[in-house]
DNA sequence: TACGTTATTATATGGTAGTTCAATAAGGAA
DNA sequence: TTCCTTATTGAACTACCATATAATAACGTA
């Protein structure tokens, strides 16, 4: 009995899943590869090994490796959009409380961690060079910006301040992404707390005290 | 006379250059590939084709493809550091004028263009995943931040303002990088002029009027 | 003009990339 | 239990990857 099989001979060699479930498993494996090795680690071989499936499955479920990459991008935004469109505050919360909740979420451990940020960095560098990814980006990013703009606009309105909403939103989004970039590359140069503080320091001169 | 050669038979098949000159040519070719196709386009084949040399030359001059990538990164910083450490203002210019000159340079066509920004994006995504690149980054980025910190500190000192220099510098650098990121991916969402304006809008509540 | 140094070429090598597709077998339905 | 659908496997294929190295030839020097 050389190389004893770990399971009984009658055990299935693999298990079948619904299309949706398997797609999610492959997306998760893709995220793991992106987090660990960046865009150069996003390969059929690596991802299938990570997901413990054979090489043919990605093409079967996503047509191509780029199809999976677009799905991975959508999954990243999916998580973030929940926090922005449904901040964890009471329904009757003030606009200020909604904004503060969004900022807190952005710099919480769930989003502000090296794995997630390394994924974002890897994706950002490819958007402009990958048509399929760009298409997905346009869809998701529009929603993201709209959510931020509405929140900022609501605060300004509640305080009777007139602001250039598009510009302030762009500044806020840019600062958040920029802080994530710096921290991902060299985490010791700032803390999540300082990054969060930086956002308030940007917005308070424009919107008034927020905390 | 089939397939007539374009040059006389006695013409050299290639020309020799000094090590320094050839290294620069390879770096330029690497930059072009990065600008056009991102990090996935940074390959021996592509770069050598771009530079019109044979495949062995990169290894000969840089040991490996990662060695060339680190040199490319250094070249990008080299250009930017000139503008920061030697802003185009008179020697006796005010700190405010020096700061304004740096900001103007950052959003000038020389730096704020899609090619350059696509290169930065490609590099940022790889720093955390490439030890050789990380080493080069640490060397260059420290100089960059120091230059920004000194300039901000000088303005604050001249105006008798007390600021958290490290935090303000981090905010400024993050905003600049973030704006470049957004603009590179979707240039129609803001102009270079608005990006420049955003920097002043961040700094003026902290340092007072700057323009 | 001939020589010597060495930058450069060109090929070989072993690995890994993404995609295709026929064969397989899991697991629900009958 | 048997059958059928189809998710999944796994090998084949072509293309491209980085690197090593021996042969070549450019060009300054003597």
Describe this structure as you would to a colleague.
The structure is a homodimer of 211-residue chains. Chain A has 211 residues and is mainly alpha-helical. Chain A has a single domain (19-207), classed as Tetracycline Repressor, domain 2. Helices cover 69% and strands 0% of the residues of chain A. The first copy, chain A, is built from nine helices and no strands. The first copy, chain A, has helices at 19-37, 44-51, 57-62, 65-85, 95-106, 114-127, 131-158, 165-185, 192-207. In chain A, helix 5 (95-106) packs antiparallel against helix 7 (131-158), helix 6 (114-127) packs across helix 8 and helix 8 (165-185) packs antiparallel against helix 9 (192-207). The longest helix of chain A is centred in the C-terminal third of the chain and has 28 residues, at 131-158. The N and C termini of chain A lie far apart (70 Å). Residues 1-7 of chain A have low confidence and may be disordered. At the A-B interface, helix 6, helix 7, helix 8 and helix 9 of A face helix 6, helix 7, helix 8 and helix 9 of B. Chain A binds a DNA duplex (30 and 30 nucleotides) through helix 3.
């Amino acid at each position: 009995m050389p190389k004893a099989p770990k399971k009984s001979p009658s055990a299935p060699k693999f298990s079948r899943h619904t299309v949706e479930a398997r797609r999610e498993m492959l997306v998760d494996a893709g995220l793991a590869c992106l987090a660990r090795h960046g865009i150069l680690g996003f390969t059929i071989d690596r991802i299938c090994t990570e997901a413990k499936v054979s090489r043919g499955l990605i093409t079967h479920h996503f047509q191509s490796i780029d199809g999976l990459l677009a799905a991975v991008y959508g999954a990243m935004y999916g998580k973030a959009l929940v926090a922005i469109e449904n901040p964890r505050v009471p329904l009757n919360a003030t606009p200020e409380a909604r904004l503060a909740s969004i900022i807190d979420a952005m710099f919480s451990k769930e989003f502000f961690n090296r794995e997630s940020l390394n994924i974002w960095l890897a994706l950002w560098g490819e958007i402009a060079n990958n048509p399929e990814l760009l298409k997905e980006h346009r869809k998701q990013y529009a929603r993201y910006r709209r959510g931020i703009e509405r929140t900022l606009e609501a605060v300004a309105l509640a305080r009777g301040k007139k602001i250039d909403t598009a510009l302030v939103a762009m500044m806020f989004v840019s600062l958040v992404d920029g802080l994530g970039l710096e921290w991902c590359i060299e985490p010791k140069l700032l803390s999540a707390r300082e990054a969060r503080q930086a956002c308030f320091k940007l917005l308070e001169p424009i919107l008034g005290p927020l905390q």
